[in-house]
Amino acid sequence: MSSVIAAARFSVLDRSRTREGHPYAEALRDTVDLAREAERLGYHRFWVSEHHGVPGVAGSAPTVLAAAVAGATRTIRVGTGGVMLPNHRPLVVAEQFGVLESLFPGRVDMGLGRSVGFTDGVRRALGRGKDDADDFAAQLDELLGWFRGTDPTGVHARPAEGLTVPPFVLAMNEGAAIAARAGLPMVIGDLRDRDRMRRGIDRYRDGFRPSPWASEPYVVVSGTVAVAATPEAARRILVPEAWSMAHARTRGTFPPLPPAERVESLPMTAKERALHASGLTGHIAGTEDQVAADLETLLKETQAQEVLVTTSTYDRDALLDSYRRLAAIIAG
Description:
Blueprint: H1 3-7, E1 9-14, H2 24-41, E2 45-48, H3 62-72, E3 77-80, E4 83-84, H4 90-103, E5 108-113, H5 120-126, H6 136-148, E6 167-170, H7 174-182, E7 186-188, H8 194-207, E8 219-223, E9 225-227, H9 231-251, H10 260-263, H11 270-279, E10 284-286, H12 288-302, E11 306-309, H13 316-331
Parallel strand pairs: 1-2, 1-11, 2-3, 3-5, 4-5, 5-6, 6-7, 7-8, 8-11, 9-10
Helix pairs in contact: 2-3, 2-13, 4-6, 7-8, 9-11, 12-13
């Protein structure tokens, strides 16, 4: 096995993607089942995400889902990738993670993002606007302050105060600089734009200030990794998500995942076809040997300490098989 791969941690982020013909509840149960399998296979963390009003995603309450995942597992670290801080009051977020850490001590991660709702309607429903993301640095500082017990008004976050819940910043563009100034680990994607990703990592490392949370930079790179017996089988894992992204960019809605064979029979406009083809590129996908080589290149290029795998597809058996094959690569 590559010493570069052996030195890295590998984790899973599951977005609870819905599938055509399957209810939201099934997508959530699939996430919990995948967490159990990820633990059995030896992955380091299992994270869930936050999306509101999106037909293609069931995961709208990440701390609630993280609690279900933690309750169904025993050893794997559990967290969020992430809680979108502009959508919440920092005190409430601190309290939620304080409860999680109290129930599952030493296993909880607090991944935090700065995105607001996907559409104007969702943002209105959340009581937020596009500019609320600009307050992320101040919100982050306030959130961490609740764990340190530094609020000047005398209010205390119970049971968060005094607990250590490792925070991570989901970072692109300005987020990398915020993570660096705060001295926090950074999660960065996507793998499809390596130059942009490397610029963000360099910006983070150059500006990093040690903090009580992290004494040195810690980089997690995230993206899709699909492993199968043949390159074509790996490509088919990517097809449903690529089509959903193309659909979202041309029609404004992010739909449930369709089966790959249905996507391949769909009539597409020239723009849809181009977007779909683009969505199939830039990922790490192929046989075990191909994926191992690509992972080694990625880790050498980025010097990242961890890879967060975010693969979604319609075929659950193919998805589970991909994670099992990847685990075998990691184990050598």
